[in-house]
């Protein structure tokens, strides 16, 4: 999922970055970084908290050629 999509999902739920940060127990600046595409440096747990604050679940899948392996 692209970072801009996370912003759209948050906005669709009428949540502000501050509200998501409070729900996820992370800093608002981290929410902003994630939504601006700085996902590469985000820890999996931080992304999991963000998605959970929106009411979702984070799935992680590895793709190797034609095979996929769910990790989390």
Automatic annotation (TrEMBL):
It holds the Pfam family HTH_3. Residues 6-61 form the HTH cro/C1-type domain. SUPFAM superfamilies: lambda repressor-like DNA-binding domains. Coiled coil: none annotated. This is Transcriptional regulator. InterPro entries: Cro/C1-type_HTH (IPR001387), Lambda_DNA-bd_dom_sf (IPR010982). GO terms for molecular function: DNA binding.
């Amino acid at each position: 999922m692209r970072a801009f999509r996370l912003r759209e999902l948050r906005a669709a739920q009428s949540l502000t970055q501050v509200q998501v940060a409070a729900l996820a127990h992370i800093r608002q600046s981290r929410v902003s970084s994630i939504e601006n595409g700085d996902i590469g440096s985000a820890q999996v747990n931080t992304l999991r908290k963000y998605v959970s604050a929106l009411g979702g679940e984070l799935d992680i899948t590895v793709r190797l050629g034609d095979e996929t392996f769910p990790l989390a």
